[in-house]
Specification:
Helices cover 49% and strands 19% of the residues. With 646 residues, it is an alpha+beta fold.
């Protein structure tokens, strides 16, 4: 029997390791997906074909060992994440690792934590007054901190777990005591100050993002354009940045012969440290190391094997990164390049396009075909104009990066000439801003959930890759069936055929609940939930017009007014000042099959013959819904799901 997949030891080890990590998460996060298990089972079968002694023995050893290793590493990561001081008020001493600017305040990620003089592991995300700190500052503040729970019903709980952010808090007053002993972190902060001192704010934010990977300093409108234009990957320190730096160093040090890759890799490692050791930069660093080592030994490196090796190395040291959107996207993009770029290049050859255009288009399509479902699942949208914008900017990104790196480095060493040295990169980024403002690049597809469809999409797209050696007819039939099944899954994920579907958003003091039936779509909001949070939540789950927005507090009224809803309902009367938006008041109200009653403590929903007490606060033991929780006590605990008549 013809082999379907060439034997690659690292790939054969990486897949069961990822399966073990996913298995732990599906059990502990209560998000078990049959599609995910099916994906790995069929993949393992393809690895086994043709069945021979070598492959069979390899899988019998590799499969249980690396699956068990993945489960064990994730459990250990969770145990370590749970350690630390409980929630409370502390005097905090910490080092600023990264800062993102918002309207009127800053969000800083802190490391090297000390609470009341006692060292603590992990990191802290804290809201601070605007423009008070930069990366590398050693700060002191006093305030309440909340210990994070990776299992809490939060929109960003898994990402915080992956980033080892164990605490969140707010402080209105900060004391900056000194600079950190971390020279690379201090250099990062100094670069930020120099760029903003000698360049216009928007140009400085783009330059800083390109060099450091931190998009948080951008003005919100520009940040939104970059994200929804599908070009945020250009500013995430990854293959392009590390590859350009590594290749330039190899060229300069070519007199060292086959050992030139060693100092080049060290230089790249220092740059990764400057960028905060982001997962995308480390992935690129490992792959460059594999490439350099293979070349020095006279061997040809295999991109799929190098990618698998990088995944193993990073997941062994940081298994929680499996749940990081950054980890998923950087590896998915590289996987797409490996699997599909060659196929797309061959398909485009008959068009007789310029070679650089064919390579750019093939690379862009190859990366996007794999990252698309991850972007949809993580951020709730897909960029419509991303491919076109990438065709323009990807070929220029290396020039932008190399020019910015050289000129910024010289500006740091020669501060008296910074205005002159930074004039050229400032002009380049001015042209980029002009391009971004020239057209509406933020057109996106949103408002639908992808769910298990992401796994099906990735799996059946694999049949399009020539890396799987199968007959064309079988490949075509499998791809068509996969697309049909993907469409069916999307249909059931986004249309309610029976019952009442409940979807929750919670993040710190913000909460929202989407209630869907065949006819009605009602959004309930409570707490300090912002318009952007509501819009992001709806982008992931619903794209039509809401029947109503129910605000459980007066603070929710201003947010509700800007949502696409027929009417707004408040349980208690409040002055609104609205002329065009219809606002209704009352403790009892109904929308189709949905009946609501608002008490002093909570909102009760009656549908399908079931009474549901909606508790969107933390004091409810992290429960979202209490079914039948009246005088008879708690009968059922329901999180996201569908209520049906019993």
């Amino acid at each position: 029997m013809k082999k379907i997949l060439n034997f690659r030891p690292c790939l054969f080890c990486a897949l069961p390791l990822c399966f073990g990590l996913s298995l732990w998460g599906s059990i502990n996060f209560s998000d078990f997906s049959p599609a995910l298990v099916l994906f790995f089972c069929i993949t393992f079968f393809l690895m086994l074909v043709p069945i021979n002694q070598k492959r069979l023995l390899s899988l019998l050893v590799i499969l249980p060992v690396f699956t068990g290793l993945g489960v064990g590493l994730m459990e250990l990561a969770f145990i370590n994440y749970g350690k630390g001081a409980p929630s409370g008020e502390y005097v905090v001493t910490a080092t600023v690792q990264q800062v993102s600017e918002r309207q009127g305040y800053s969000i800083a990620v802190l490391k090297g934590l000390s609470f009341d003089g006692e060292a603590q592991a992990g990191k802290c995300r804290v809201m601070l007054p605007a423009d008070t700190v930069v990366a590398g500052d050693l700060i002191v503040f006093q305030g309440p901190l909340e210990k994070k729970d990776p299992f809490e019903h939060s929109a960003y709980a898994k990402n915080d777990f992956a980033s080892d952010i164990r605490y969140t808090g707010t402080s209105r007053e900060v004391i900056t005591t000194a600079k950190s002993s971390d020279l690379l972190l201090r250099l990062n902060g100094h670069l930020y100050e120099v760029l903003y001192e000698h360049m216009e704010p928007d140009e400085a934010s783009l330059c800083y993002a390109l060099l450091s990977g931190n998009l948080g300093a951008m003005e919100e409108g520009l940040h939104e354009t970059v994200r929804k234009g599908g070009i945020a990957h250009i500013f995430a320190v990854s293959g392009m940045h590390i590859g350009v730096l590594f290749s330039a160093a190899m060229l300069i040090l070519k007199k060292l012969g086959r050992y030139a890759w060693v100092p080049s890799l060290v230089l790249s490692f220092l740059y990764c440290g400057f960028c905060g050791m982001t997962i995308s930069s480390l992935r690129s660093l490992v792959m460059c190391g594999v490439f350099g080592a293979s070349r020095s030994m006279g061997r040809k490196s295999d991109d799929l094997e190098s990618l698998s090796f990088a995944a193993i190395v990073l997941l062994l040291f940081a298994p929680a990164q499996w749940y990081s959107a950054g980890f998923q996207l950087t590896f998915a993009a590289c996987l797409g390049l490996s699997l599909f770029a060659g196929s797309f290049s061959r398909l485009l050859q008959p068009l007789h396009l310029p070679k650089f255009l064919v390579e750019t288009l093939a690379s862009t399509l190859g990366a996007q075909i794999v990252t698309a479902p991850i972007l949809m699942a993580s951020f709730g949208y897909l960029s419509v104009m991303g491919t076109l914008l990438n065709l323009i900017l990807v070929p220029l990104s290396s020039l932008f990066f190399f020019c910015s790196l050289i000129m910024s480095g010289l500006a740091l060493m020669l501060p008296f000439a910074a205005d002159f040295l930074l004039a050229f990169p400032e002009a380049l980024f001015s042209l980029l801003i002009l391009l971004l403002s020239f057209s509406e690049w933020t057109l996106v597809l949103s408002g639908f959930a992808i769910g298990a469809g992401a796994i099906l999409w990735l799996f059946y797209c694999g049949y399009l890759s020539t890396r799987l050696q199968m007959r064309r007819l079988f490949r075509a039939v499998a791809a068509v069936l996969g697309c049909a099944l993907f469409a069916v899954v999307l249909l059931f994920e986004n249309i309610v055929f029976s019952g009442c579907r409940l979807i929750v958003y919670e993040e710190e003091e913000s909460a929202a609940l989407l209630i869907q039936t065949r006819e009605e779509n009602v959004l309930v909001i409570d707490g300090d939930v912002s318009l952007s949070e509501c819009e992001e939540f709806l982008d992931r789950n619903f794209g039509g017009e809401l029947s109503a927005v129910v605000g459980l507090s007066a603070d929710a009224l201003n947010t509700a007014a800007f949502l696409n809803a027929t009417e707004i309902h408040l349980p208690y009367y409040a002055e609104t000042g609205f002329h065009e938006t219809q606002v209704l008041f009352g403790k009892r109200f109904s929308y189709g099959e949905l009946s609501f009653y608002c008490s002093a403590e909570s909102l009760v929903l009656v549908t399908e013959g079931v009474a549901v007490e909606i508790a969107l606060d933390k004091e409810a033991g992290n429960a979202d819904f209490f079914i039948g929780a009246g005088s008879g006590g708690l009968k059922f605990l329901l999180e996201d799901g569908i209520i049906k008549e019993l």
